[in-house]
Structures are given as C-alpha cells and as structure tokens.
Amino acid sequence: MATETSKSIFWQGVRDGSPFILVIVPFSTLFGVVATEAGLNVFETVAFSFLVIAGAAQFTAIELMRNDAPTLIVMVSALAVNLRMAMYSASLTPYLGEATLAQRAWAAYFTVDQTYACSVLKFDERRDWTIGQRLTYFFGVAAPICPPWYLFTGVGAMIGTAIPEGLALDFAIPITFLALIGPMMRTRAHVAAGFVSVLSALVFAFLPFNLGLLVAGVLGMMTGAQVELIDKRRAERRAA
C-alpha cells in the first residue's frame, strides 16, 4: 500500500463527512428557527450552537424552555440526551487516548454523532494508522459538518418565522439519526440496546418534560452492557 500523506487522509475524512451536509443544513436551520421562536435572539442562538454543538441536546433544551420547564429539568434532560457522548469518548479512547491534552480537548469538542460514526468505523478498519493520522482523519470529517452547523444556525435564526409552515425542515432529524444508527447495529448488544431504548421511549412517553427519554437511555445502556457481558462470557467458554 502506498504511503498515505496527511493531506490525503484529511481529504478522506472530508469525503466521508460531506454527505451529512444534506441533513446538517436543514437540521441546523430548523434549530435556528425554533430557537428564535423560543425567544432567543440571533447572537444567543449562534452562541448556543458554538458552545453546545450537540443538536439533539439543543433541541431538547429549547423545547423544554418553550414549555416553561424548570431550569434543573432542562439541564438534566439535555445532559441525559448527551450521555451518548460519554460512550463515544470511551469508544474512541483506544484510538485517540495517547494524543496530547490539547488534541484530545479539540477532539472532545468536535465529537458529534457524525464524526464519531465515521471515525470509529475507519479506525477499526485502519488499525495501522498513527495517532496523528487518526486525528487528521477525525478533523477531516468535522470540516464539512461543524462549520455548516454554525452557519446555518445563524441563517435559521435570521429567517425565523419567515419560513412557511409547509416547508417541513424537521424531516432532517429522524433521517440523520437513522443514517447514523443503522450502520452501527453490528452486534447483538447494539441491537438489544436500540430495541429496548425505542420500546422504553414509547412506554414512558407519558412522563412529563420528556423524562421518558432519560429512562429509555438508561435502560438501553444497561441492556446493551448486559448483552455484551453475556456474549463475552460465551466466547470465553468456547475458547476454553
């Protein structure tokens, strides 16, 4: 295999991350619109995206704010939705854990669903890459994803309520997560966690302030961990 340059690896990341622009643009525009409808101005809306950069958590927080939920509930719910980032970080640690503190800090900031999904699959495929090559690919994926998120959040905030109701930008939300989750359902633990999460979210949908999502997330993680433990023990018994 020919030696890969940092430039070529970076552009691999850009190429893999670029298809997500198709959903990032309407997704971020929709957030800008929703945020201004909730009472935030353009600066506050864009700052929200810069500081949090977590679409699902941002939508959760804004929706709860619109419903006058207590501040504590807003914070806990947004953190619960973002608990998956802790799992993403743990999954990326074997690949990026030896990077410098500054590199890990930037990688943590740009760890979103899309950068994680592309990177963990590529790192598993290219185990021969160095830390530098992995980081180059990771930031390559982030390049076509994060700047449009900031930009079109601002566009949505400026457009605000001028967008016709018939223009259903919210189609981007389920499509984004389906595109991310589908390829990652590779083991029994993944499938079990996904199934229990969906079922629990439906069962506990009656809970106020979207707390059903918090319950579903916890139950899904517990199920996935238990199934993974069972599978690991079975594999060890077969090998014995």
Keywords:
single chain, 240 residues, mainly alpha, 2 domains, 13 helices, 75% helix, transport, transmembrane helix
Can you describe what's shown?
The two termini are 37 Å apart. The protein folds into 2 domains: 178 residues, no CATH class; 55 residues. Helices cover 75% and strands 0% of the residues. The relative contact order is 0.16. The chain is mainly alpha-helical and 240 residues long. The longest helix has 29 residues. It is globular. Helix 2 runs parallel beside helix 4, helix 4 packs antiparallel against helix 5 and helix 8 runs antiparallel to helix 9. It is built from 13 helices and no strands.
Give a quick precis of the structure.
This protein is mostly helical and 240 residues long.
What fraction of the residues are assigned to beta strands by DSSP? under 5%
The assigned structural class equals mainly alpha
Number of helices: 13
Low-confidence stretches: none
Q: Rg from C-alpha positions?
A: 19 Å
Helical fraction equals over 70%
Topology of this structure?
Elements (H helix, E strand, L loop, with lengths): L5 H12 L3 H17 L4 H11 L2 H12 L4 H11 L1 H14 L4 H9 L3 H13 L5 H12 L3 H14 L12 H10 L6 H16 L7 H29 L1
Protein name: Inner membrane protein YgaZ
Family: Belongs to the AzlC family.
GO biological process, one term: L-valine transmembrane transport
